[in-house]
Amino acid sequence: xxxxxxxxxxxxxxxxxxxxxxxxxxxxxxxxxxxxxxxxxxxxxxxxxxxxxxxxxxxxxxxxxxxxxxxxxxxxxxxxxxxxxxxxxxxxxxxxxxxxxxxxxxxxxxxxxxxxxxxxxxxxxxxxxxxxxxxxxxxxxxxxxxxxxxxxxxxxxxxxxxxxxxxxxxxxxxxxxxxxxxxxxxxxxxxxxxxxxxxxxxxxxxxxxxxxxxxxxxxxxxxxxxxxxxxxxxxxxxxxxxxxxxxxxxxxxxxxxxxxxxxxxxxxxxxxxxxxxxxxxxxxxxxxxxxxxxxxxxxxxxxxxxxxxxxxxxxxxxxxxxxxxxxxxxxxxxxxxxxxxxxxxxxxxxxxxxxxxxxxxxxxxxxxxxxxxxxxxxxxxxxxxxxxxxxxxxxxxxxxxxxxxxxxxxxxxxxxxx
Length: 418
Known about the structure:
By secondary structure, this protein is mainly α. Helix content is 75%, strand content 0%. The chain has one domain (71-417).
């Protein structure tokens, strides 16, 4: 009974939690734009986006708020994320994104290979170093639980569910693996957000030419300046109407397509095509890209991407409040496997990036398109520049498509090595 009292968060009302998160975001925005030397030096080393993610995680670990008991992440990921994608893509230079070249795809695929290889290698390593950690039989076999992590880290939640249905780990094991998935993936997300703030130094080490990315960013900035104006209430209302109208269409499409596929093509149920969230992201992104060829792209002049960025920052805060660092101590062996796995993924990414001289932007977004999917890949991309968020979304969609196939391959190799 005592443990239940300790586990209960101080603030359970989502209205209060949302207020806390917005105050945190406002404080970070105000201090990061301050001209005081202390804050300028502070944010030279600590990216503001990292704090937007990290501070809520501290509050969650301290028991003040709870990501598990709150509905804010669901609201942010289902309503604010698609609306954000619409606003961040409606003024995008689609040709410019295509012109970034093949390195983005290569780094994404390197990240996928890193996950497929990393799982079996980490499992094999711990079978020698700590055989008790990987012990188990039947539904408790560790590789079965790790297969769900592979699904999540290559495609996302839908792929994770598919792996759960295919390999049938016990509920207790699956629950532990979800915790490993969230904590390890979010620790790596924190490193990526930090890396985005020092990307120029990393690019020098890679000997990478980030000119195409810089040119695209400058082109978008110049376009924004050419159409910039003081927004009126009509402008803001129109921006919100466009964003949430496309979001509504995306939800309608997802609610229509998903059951139709499940009924008529049950073989696709275990793939991302049977996921409502997959269709929500695809339709919202497609809607934003289509708007970029119309006069709607001029809404950028009234601050469409700024509103979209705010939605994205709220999502970042809700992702952060899902991470409880203290949960690591519940199953330390599983977390060590997860950390070893992610390190192998990182090593392969950096080796390939060094060989092809890929900018860190492609490394970071390619990794997160695998590990985090559509919910966080645009967050990492926007850490470099808000206008680059669609690159993360497009790669994440590719991750959805490959996720189940690659995760099955990973799971079968893990079955062999175990």
